[in-house]
Amino acid sequence: MTRHWSEIVTMVPGMRSGKPCIRGLRITVYDVLSYLAAGMTEVEILAEFPELTSEDVRACLAFAADRERHARTAA
Fold first, then answer.
1. Which residue of 9, 42, 60, 75 has the fewest C-beta atoms within 10 A of its own C-beta?
2. Which of 26-53 are b and which e, b meaning 16 or more Cβ less than 10 Å from the residue's Cβ?
């Protein structure tokens, strides 16, 4: 069963300035999304950061989609 992004993405005050991170690691959602936007594949990201999982990458995408959906409804 796939977990909801909120079970994977954490925001801890003082860690990476409170930015959304993956499972309390010092890898931010922004980092993962930036690597994807730059053309890295999921396989390349996972090879570069072995502490991440495919589920973590999907959680970053789901987090961004959810945030975008809420930004659109708030505007």
1. 75
2. ebbbebbeebbeeeeebeebbeebeebe
3-class secondary-structure state, position 2: coil
pTM as predicted: 0.85
Check: CB of residue 18 under 8 Å from CB of residue 30: no
In angstroms, the CA 52 to CA 68 distance is 23
CA distance 62 to 3: 11
CATH code, domain carrying 20: 1.10.10.10
CB 29 within 8 A of CB 20: yes
Which amino acid makes up residue 58?
R
- pLDDT tens digit sequence for 18-43: 899 999 899 999 999 999 999 999 99
